[in-house]
Fold these 4 entries.
Entry 1:
Amino acid sequence: MAQDRPIPLDEYPVHQAPLSMAHVVTGDRNAYDRCIFHVFDHQGRALLIVGLGVYPNTGVIDAYATLRVGDRLHAVRASDALTDDRMNLSVGPLRITVDTPLRRLALHCAPDPGDPDSLAYDIAWTADFPALWEPHHVQRKGGRLTLEGRRFVQAGHCAGVIRVGGQEIPVTARGWTGTRDRSWGVRPIPGEEAGRGDEYRPEGFHWLWAPVRFDDRFVMVVVQEDADGYRTLNDAVLVREGHPDTQLGWPRADITYRPGTRHPERAVVHLAGPSGKPLELGVEILASSPLAVGAGYPPADGWQHGTWQGRGWTDRQVYDLSDPAAHPMAAYGVSDHAARFTLDGRTGHGIFEHGSFGRHDPSGFADHTSVAP
């Protein structure tokens, strides 16, 4: 075995424990550190989702990009062995650069050399508002900690170009919005599930995550509920540059689903100002991308985040989303929806990320087979 040596990041005073920055404090194989970006136009014509993750205890770094245009979903996935250069955020054709921390980043995807029509992009992502911490996120199965994450979220604008299918799609600051989150901690990686996990399988899970950018403010809503509606994660915050963050009460969402599905078409999220004045965050879905298709989120078949694919693995796929029956697992995973939002006379844009599985009493869903009438 090669001798353990300091890595370049050890030069900086950023250590949180008497360990090299090559290691994390926990020995849990599910330790992770990753990001996700959303880039989308305000008419719902294109939705680009980009992510990159590091899994230090499995020695894996991987990344993905999906672009929905019409009913076509173009996906690029890449995975490789993690190296000591932790500031090099690139895997195969996918690369992220941090030009100014918490302010300006860049997203890149090189085309497939053998296919000039394949997905490629070069995009500058610029924050319009300060980054916002989300509540500490913890989940357990019985007595076992399965998820513990720290996450911040941010919204901004984007500029650049996306190339796919022989066309160039200009990304402009006025017509596009960008959101992102950064999270790290412990989160399940497929494999090595043991013990009494099935005994602790929840009857239901209901999730809503909505970062929303307006011209002069940023609103973040996150809600997680059990089958009976008991809330295990809850926050609604208004961010304005130069002002203290404002809490917006106990968010409650009325979601209108497409008949025969749990696919949201529109929603109203009920909020409240500090004085108790009711506020309504209106939601109109513009474009949707199921994260279980192409992006590697459970219950995706094939590749999922953090799984070892061998060195230098790259994969490209194009999916037809016009027939939901062709992707049956998508209904059992979270979907990201680019959306137009309204609040107190203002119009903004953001992501309405939603998943509802199994029983959820407040929505009237009795079990995993239940759908909207």
Note: The chain has a mean pLDDT of 95.
Entry 2:
Amino acid sequence: MAALIAQRLVQALIVLVVVSVLAFVLSTQIGDPVASILGLQATPADRLELRTRLGLDEPWPVQYFAFLRRVLTGELGVSYITQIPVAELIVTRLPATLELAGVALLLSLGLGLPIGIYAAVNRGHWSADAVLALSVVGVSIPTFVIAILLIFVFSVTLGWLPSFGRGQVVQVGWWSTGLLTDSGRRALLMPALALAISQVALVARLVRAEMLQVLRTDYIRFARARGIAPRVITLSLALRNTLIPVITVSGIQLGFLFAFAVVAEAVFQWPGIGLLFLQALGSTDVPVISAILLLTAAFFVAVNLVIDLLYALVDPRLRSGGMTGRADRA
């Protein structure tokens, strides 16, 4: 297990270094931060002074290693536009995105698991095929279209849910949450549902395929021969073994939802990391852009590391196999 952890940590470090290079290169190509800060009316002397103060007159390798040194020391810099430390901005916005991604994951599993189980148990029945087809329709529609449709139905037509914002939030230490207030929960429902719908078909089809394989195994046939109730066989014996690959997909989904929540956050004006990233892009706020790209990569790496360790705990054969089994099954 120690060797596995060390191997995964080295791989994670390599990924983060590559992402840091890409983040730095991207941040140097999206525009001129000096023009965004000073505007078009600034004098050449003011532009030169600011460029020197920000270190933008240095060669790119010097700028990159200065950027990397700040990251390794926990100094993410200061926003060019707001003059607020980037770490403070991220800490303020991070709870909103994590709550949105977490609730969206729960909704996708809550909808996808029953659909997949039903489709596997009733294989070949028209109702099972209809449910799967309906789930595919959901994944075929872009997230922003789903978000707009939800706003039209539940906000404009019915007036049940707010169309933007996070609602009332409360502070629990450094964490700001809307889950403890009624308006916060109502504001969270539509953005989370808009993100979850695109993932339901993935979960449903995975659960269906895995459960069909498990239902064909000898121990399931033996359980049926012993007269065990079909519901017990499905929900206890078969589902337990089906959940192993679902763990992998759930982790990947969580990383995907965290990274691509930007669409829902933009439509619903959800004050999270995604909306902050869009605002930073619009104003060429290089420190914020670079920090968010690194944070997203670190989140993906951490999630995949946890998944690998969970797999090793669930299946001891993988502890000495370099986790190749997980890649084959995924």
Note: The chain has a mean pLDDT of 80.
Entry 3:
Amino acid sequence: GWFDPIVEFMRPVPPLALIPLMIIWFGIGEMSKVILLFLAALWIMAIAARSGVSGVAIAKVHAAYSLGANKSQILRKVIIPNSLPEIFTGARVAMGVCWGTVVAAELVAAEKGLGMMIMVAAKFQLTDIVIVGIILIGVIGFAIDIGIRKLEDWLVPWKGKV
């Protein structure tokens, strides 16, 4: 709750609006992309984690306390496992935003990457390369989402089960 004003202030700011600041502070390179992606995902993940934690049934926490669990055990054995489905949903959304952000950042200013490839191809009116780039963006984004789903299935096998 303490960070809610900061999260709600930064959440609506499009990550692409931060590109000029990242270029000024960190130059055109990988470091600026990493920090930009971190900031793009941070607010989404914070909201997902908060939603996951607040969605934990208080009865489960009380039951753990009545069985003699301490605060650390409740965090590790009750709160985190019950929050993981929401956190993974946030991770899927954040990864989609991050993938779109990195490609868009490469369209604006980059030395390499799919966005840069599309921009160079567009300058020379190489429509086929632009279309292949767009298809690659979609395929890679889909693969990332499938990877996160598989990781979720492996780490959270109880999701959706009563």
Note: The chain is about 80% helix and 0% strand.
Entry 4:
Amino acid sequence: MTIFDVDIDRLAGGPAELDRYRGQVVLVVNVASRCGNTPQYAGLQSLFDTYADRGLVVLGVPCNQFAGQEPGTAAEIEEFCRTDYGVTFPLTAKVDVNGPDRHPLYRELVGDGPDVSWNFEKFLVAPDGAVAARFDPKVDPQDERLRAAVEKLTTIG
């Protein structure tokens, strides 16, 4: 099983259908609207704009587990992302990324590794569904290490 086999809803409702991203590179990021890392939305959008035509999908996954920094409703989150940061990449329903109610998407991403440490932790998933890299929340989406990893996978894909 990979992330492409997991059921999760879109933020706006209805299934996100992650299986449609099979064969593409996916950067999964747990996001929050009231976090010190929230300005990373701009960098994530830029990354998406730069590499989408080469098969990169940025997938934002709202989570309210870290200091209650994503308290809004789906409509509020979507409006914030679109209005304040011009987000066009897909967003899922709000989920738990740690603990007993960890969403199956994050069970696949984390595996036997450590829990997600904070908002904006990034998992880079290869076209075959394997987690190729994991980046700390403080790693900016424009960081050369992250961009190099994306570049490598989108070149192979």
Note: The longest helix spans residues 144-156.
